[in-house]
């Protein structure tokens, strides 16, 4: 059998096994092995590692698409010097993701624009890099989705979809008050994830005002009991990043946002 026929036969076998990256790299890998006097094992390892790398990349891309992040921002992109109220060491510790493994929560409180969403996305990206499933949703998008599912008699399956990810990021809690149905649906979701799946929650509203947000102080108390039982609370006090350049150039007056209340367990 000629080298060309042998190569074609090997490519067909790899194709049948679903090793598509190996198919693409078989010929150049064989050439590399010949030029470098590689062993059969060395050639095989090189070929299979390329397949593993390709599959790892595809899985990562699939998880990124499934997460529905509003943008791609990492911890390296965050300007900690602009927000001195944030303990950078604490954020770096959270990036180790033990809170996700333990099914605990992170709550970020602070006025608009101080970096709550950026940090949440950055931690979500760290989780995906470690092979964990992540889902990002705004509070308004979440309750609208659950309300629709309730009307269509498929709330159960929709709740399960939000329970499934290892990390659920719920952004902008408290920006708009909720009606009784939306509040009840969110409470059920939090209850389903309690001690089973980690959450990152961002809010510009102090905990003392959650009774008004959820329209029921008793429900809000029960909700906070579950969220804060195993939680790290981060209070961010400072100016909006959207005003950073103007503030630094002296074109705008520094302003202090509403200070979120410190949570206690």
Automatic annotation (TrEMBL):
UniProt name for this protein: DNA replication protein DnaC
Keyword annotations of the record: ATP-binding, Nucleotide-binding
Source species: Alicyclobacillus cycloheptanicus
InterPro entries registered for this protein in UniProt: AAA+_ATPase, DNAC/IstB-like, IstB, IstB_ATP-bd, P-loop_NTPase
Family: Belongs to the IS21/IS1162 putative ATP-binding protein family.
Domain AAA+ ATPase: from-to ranges: 102-235
PANTHER family reported in the protein's UniProt record: ATP-BINDING PROTEIN RV3427C IN INSERTION SEQUENCE-RELATED (PTHR30050:SF4), CHROMOSOMAL REPLICATION INITIATOR PROTEIN DNAA (PTHR30050)
Highest taxon, organism lineage: Bacteria
């Amino acid at each position: 059998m000629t080298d060309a026929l042998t190569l074609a036969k090997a490519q067909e076998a790899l194709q049948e096994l679903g090793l598509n990256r190996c198919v693409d790299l078989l010929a150049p890998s064989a050439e590399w092995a010949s030029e470098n006097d590689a062993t059969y094992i060395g050639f095989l390892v090189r070929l299979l590692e390329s397949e593993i790398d390709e599959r790892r990349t595809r899985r990562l891309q699939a998880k990124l698409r499934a997460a529905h992040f509003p943008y791609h921002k990492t911890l390296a992109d965050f300007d900690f010097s602009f927000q001195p109220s944030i303990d950078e060491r604490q954020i770096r510790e959270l990036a180790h993701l033990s809170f996700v493994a333990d099914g605990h929560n992170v709550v970020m409180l602070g006025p608009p624009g101080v970096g709550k969403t950026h940090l949440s996305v950055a931690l979500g990206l760290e989780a995906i890099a470690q092979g964990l499933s992540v889902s990002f949703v705004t509070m308004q998008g979440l309750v609208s989705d659950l309300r629709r599912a309730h009307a269509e008699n498929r709330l159960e399956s929709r709740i399960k979809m939000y329970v499934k990810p290892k990390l659920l990021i719920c952004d902008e809690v408290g920006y708009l008050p909720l009606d009784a149905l939306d509040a009840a649906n969110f409470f059920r979701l939090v209850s389903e994830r309690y001690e089973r799946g980690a959450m990152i929650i961002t809010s510009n509203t102090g905990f003392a005002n959650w009774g008004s947000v959820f329209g029921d102080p008793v429900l809000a108390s029960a909700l906070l009991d579950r969220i804060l039982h195993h939680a790290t609370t981060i209070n961010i006090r400072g100016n909006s990043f959207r005003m950073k350049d103007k503030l630094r150039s002296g074109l705008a007056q520094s302003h202090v946002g509403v200070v979120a209340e410190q949570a206690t367990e």
